[in-house]
Amino acid sequence: MKNLIVAPAPHAHSGDSVRKNMLLVIVALLPAYLVSVLMFGWGALITALISIVACMGAEWLIAKFVLKEQPTIGDCSALLTGLLLAFNLPSNLPWWIVVIGAVVAIGVGKMSFGGLGQNPFNPALVGRVFLLISFPVQMTTWPRPLGFSGAYVDAETGATPLYYLKQVTKHSDLAAMEKLPQLWDAFIGMMGGSLGEVCALALLVGGLFLICARVITWHIPVSILATMAVFALLTTPEGVCPWNYTALTLLTGGAMLGAFFMATDYVTSPMVGWGKIIFGVGIGLIVMVIRTWGAYPEGMSFAILIMNATVPLLNKIRPKRFGEKKK
Amino acid sequence: MNTFHIGGVHPNDNKRYSAHQPIIECPLPQKAIVPLAQHIGAPAQPVVEKGQKVKVGDLLAKAGGFVSANVHSPVSGTVTKIDTTTDAWGMKMPAVFIDVEGDEWAEGIDRTPEIIRSCEIDPKEIIDRIAAAGVVGLGGACFPTQVKLLPPPGKKAEVLIVNGVECEPYLTCDHQLMLEHGEEIMIGIQLLMRALGIQRAIIGIEKNKPDAIAHMQELASRTLGVEVKALKMKYPQGGEKQLIDACIGRQVPSGALPIEVGAVVDNVATIYAVYEAVQKHKPLVSRVMTITGKSVQKPGNYMVRFGTPLSEVVELAGGVPEDTGKIIGGGPMMGRAMNNIDMPAHKRTSGLLFLPEAESRRIEPENCIRCGKCVSACPMGLEPYLLSKQAELQMWEDMEKHDVMDCIDCGCCLFTCPSHRPLLDYIRMGKGKVGGIIRARQAAAQKK
């Protein structure tokens, strides 16, 4: 008989792979991306393409020439980082700023820690926050959603709903409520904002797909959004309809994108149910504190990055052991 | 529908190859090699000598301790030597070698197909007959059955849980046994209930065997105290602790035995052996084996006398398929890859699975992406990613603190890992080390 292969059990595998998970997340992002292209035209296409190419290129070059190991861009994680980074950028950002963001995201955010699975912070958000601090003007100038009629860089720009919400909460400027989009417009994405964050409906569809495909669990998105909702209901300024205010809180800015796609990044989120819930509640609280009292109109990126730092601690929460007695 | 409450995975069950294949009697070998350690515990002590004539059912070796089991001759013929033989993993095991002559059975063994229904036997007598017949757990662990029937002082059995789950993919021997010998199994259940002095038994069967569920339900409806529970398909439901959880919703605490929650678990094949031992005075000398795989010519269920070289059983199933890359003793989740099939069948060999070359190799591991799927999959509620890392870093004390000894080797972590990390390999290594440390500590404590 010919030589047989021997290995310890199990001899079967679920067929799951890193690449498969990454591709599923990318598929889940596609509806939102499609809406962005319809809303922002060429800007959405070009920014995403630059970001993806730059992320994959940076990973390949760093792996090959700095770390001197076999590049693993085939696992599609750099592709996903690139797409997520683009989702967090205004669609009219100059191309070289996008490239800088991508290089920081991959170089500093991921590869400097040893590559896939080793980074404590969400690489796309590291890139975005770096750009936000370095290029505050470009990063907070959002194009109006005009479709393909707008040019790539010099599109007509305007303030985002979060700017007006801030006027309401921080400066008690109730007139700003009038300038906020209608709920339906906010739901389908007819408003200014970063490339991929505007269409709550599309993000929700993608997020639910990820939960059904068992790529992510409900814990993180639900705890983030529930915390934000409760916080908004309790802190609604006087004279404003609390339901309207809460709904706008959840539908605008990076709430949906952050809750379903950014905070659920495997590498930088806790592994066990209760850890995930605490993580989500923490993000929800921090984002609302920043939105309500902080200097920035939006705080999703900061909230997720801050909670990323607590993940090693949250992973100390043990799952319920079999046969463990209730205390 | 009932199932266990923590973790678990859903492998493709692949039972279609050998399911519903009637049990075929395998021809006798010319030379039988009968291992003396076919069970957990001390090896049996030989009571025959070279040159001695034996009949089927004659005692070859006596149980070597409390946790041990008798070994009987599965064939008739002449003992040629008592020596060691090498199993498929290179381990030496003591064995009795017999040249087979005819098929003559020892006196007192009832070989008629007649079913003996009367269970009016003294409980102690039942246990004695089971022990005498060398019955062990045929589900895989091969724990001597009589030991389970004698609960330690202070513990009381309340319910017998019958394992008809067969959650390992591919294997179908228990399924077929339930279909063909359900009535005998039902009598075996009554005998065990009587031996334990209990009034309740639950048969757990996964719902991928609807005919077995219906058949056993029909038989149970005529039997007092026995009920059938159809269980949701989930691996490792056939694990002792998982099955108890699925059937009666009680979880056996860490380090404890099922009797702690009042349960005694026995596999259907074991119970069939109990029936034969008690009612027919027939010692355990054969078992049903599943020979299966995508490319096997005649996959099926074969009744094999112990001592028959596995290669002869394989011939009956059409020989080793051309594309074979791996031969597994048992199922794909917990079975062991073998490097040959020359070893004899014995109480532990539940099946042979032939995997094609293309499915035989593991995929190169990638970095852990901390997805936590191993944690969700672990049926014991452990953290496989952490234990595996701790084992890599030789942090034995931390592994003990993270309950590595609770691991049941089911393989769910490795099965589910998207990065194909060798989680269980490391955990197994750690379990060995930690087990050694614990034993050394206990020994030191005893000295004081």
Secondary-structure blueprint:
The complex is a heterodimer of chains A (327) and B (448).
Chain A: H1 18-40, H2 42-66, H3 77-87, H4 95-108, H5 123-134, H6 136-139, E1 142-143, E2 157-158, H7 161-171, H8 183-188, H9 200-212, H10 219-234, H11 242-251, H12 255-262, H13 273-293, H14 300-308, H15 311-314
Chain B: E1 24-25, E2 31-35, E3 45-46, E4 53-54, E5 59-62, E6 71-72, E7 77-86, E8 92-100, H1 123-132, H2 145-148, E9 159-163, H3 173-196, E10 201-206, H4 210-220, E11 226-231, H5 240-248, E12 263-267, H6 268-279, E13 286-292, E14 300-305, H7 310-316, E15 324-329, E16 336-338, E17 351-356, H8 373-377, H9 384-392, H10 396-401, H11 412-416, H12 423-447
Parallel strand pairs in B: 1-14, 9-10, 9-12, 10-11, 13-17
Antiparallel strand pairs in B: 2-8, 3-5, 4-7, 5-6, 7-8, 13-14, 15-16, 15-17
Helix pairs in contact in B: 1-3, 1-6, 3-4, 3-6, 9-12
Total domain count of chain A: 2
- Structural class call of chain B reads alpha/beta
* Alpha-beta content class of chain A: mainly alpha
Global shape of chain B: globular
Which percent bin holds the helix content of chain B? Answer: 25-40%
Report how far the terminal alpha carbons of chain A are from each other.
Answer: 57 Å
SS field, number of helical segments of chain B: 12
CATH C-level category of the largest domain in chain B: Alpha Beta
Number of helices of chain A: 15
Q: What is the CATH H-level superfamily of the largest domain in chain B?
A: NADH-ubiquinone oxidoreductase 51kDa subunit
Radius of gyration of chain B: 22 Å
Mean pLDDT metric of chain B: 94
